[in-house]
Amino acid sequence: MNTEDIQLYLTLSSSHHSHLCPRQVLGVRIALAGLVCLGLEPQRKDKRLLVTAETDGCFIDGLAAVTGASAGHRTLRVEDYGKIAATFVDVKTEQAVRVAPQPDIREKSWRYAPGETRHYFAQLAAYRVMPTHELLNIEEVALVKPIASIISQMGARVVCSSCGEEIFNDRQVYHAGAPFCLSCAGASYYRKIQDKLTRALAEPGPPHR
Fold it and tell me: Which partner for 50 in 89, 94, 145, 170 could form a disulfide, CB atoms 3.0-4.6 Å apart?
């Protein structure tokens, strides 16, 4: 991938993010490397590519600019490990590669930004032009879950036996034959404090003065 192509995706990423930062550049470079390893083209529309990012924020804008993946199309997922890294999966073949920056790229960046004295701008310039073998670690990986389980059955829905809320995309778990959402099954990311908000919304408020 030449520098003109990299710049094309950087422009697209920055247009969505309102500015360009080193993490977006890494997102673009990581996505391009992942696609090359899988032999897939950028900006796919057929959902053959599944991308799992290991952090959120501006890094994802770089990934999305190259791949076209999005949460809305269920082709972009976040497993928040707090790492600038992503795994790219060919859904058809189940081949997967994980791409991450090499640990010393901040130090290397000075060599590729001669005359620059500011860390941020040295990284911004260097990450665009550093050779892939100096910038990135690329490894073939195997998914812990089958791809069919990760993608799941789109449109499937059941009602949680505990809270009564609907569960989509086959994300329920079963206990004694009954379906439960992950929250009620003990894997929730939140805990309830008091059930006051629903009642407050249902009750009429004081008259406006």
Answer: 89
Q: Do 158 and 59 belong together in one domain?
A: no
pLDDT tier for residue 195 given thresholds of 50, 70 and 90: low
- pTM score, whole prediction: 0.85
The residue with greater pLDDT, 167 or 205, is: 167
Domain match, 99 and 175 both: no
Domain final residue, candidates 106, 130, 150: 150
Determine how β-strand 49-53 pairs with β-strand 76-78: parallel
**Can you give the pLDDT at residue 124?**
95
Alpha helices in the chain (DSSP H): 3-17, 22-38, 58-67, 105-109, 119-129, 132-135, 147-151, 197-202
Spatial distance between the Cα atoms of 39 and 86, rounded to a whole number of angstroms:
16
Residue type, 67: T
Kindly state whether residue 163 falls inside one of the protein's structural domains. Answer: yes
Establish if 207 belongs to a structural domain: no
Same domain? 21 vs 44: yes
Residue 191: how many CB atoms within 10 A of its CB?
6
